[in-house]
Automatic annotation (TrEMBL):
Keywords: Signal. Residues 1-23 form the signal peptide. This is Lytic transglycosylase domain-containing protein. The keyword Signal applies. Gene3D superfamilies: 1.10.530.10. Belongs to the transglycosylase Slt family. Pfam families: SLT. It comes from the Bacteria. Residues 84-177 form the Transglycosylase SLT domain. The keyword Signal applies.
Amino acid sequence: MRASNLGFICGLLLCVGSVQSVAQPHDTQEYEQLRQFLQQSIADSESFEDRFDAEVWLLDMSNRLQQYVKDPEQRLQLLQEVHRYASQSQLPPELVLAVIEVESHFDRFAVSRVGAQGMMQVMPFWKDEIGRPEDNLTLTSTNLSYGCRILQFYIKREKGNLTRALAAYNGSLGSTRYSDKVEAAWRRNWRGPNLDWE
């Protein structure tokens, strides 16, 4: 992705939904906190520090992703984007892959019953809220940027508690159903460096 495109993405206000529910801020204060956090997103950075690390990770994850994305070139392109946006948002890319599996099974055209779109199931009303109605949520780069930033926000807000953060992402705070699904997907297909699922 061109650097100019990456630059504007960092300032986006993001929100996600899911097949089961709409993940919206519950009150005005949370909404404003989310807006401020997302407007102060971290600067762009290269996601891989070492070419060898990149090759090892991409090969490993490409083999795992093959069941969902058959074309090898598409797999590598998707994995590069997942790694880039996850890293920019200080998220383990393996966690993002698990979220995508649960949300859409890697279908960039997925639409939930409540209208959430794309791989990470982003709610389209946010495009108008931030004055970017032209954003296309089926574009993988846009969708990953939205989804990763909002997940980063909830993980920070919940002080690293993945169960609570994932429930907030999904709009099901107080339930472990969604976080259990993501953890199961991570353990089954995307396990990487240890994550604290407690």
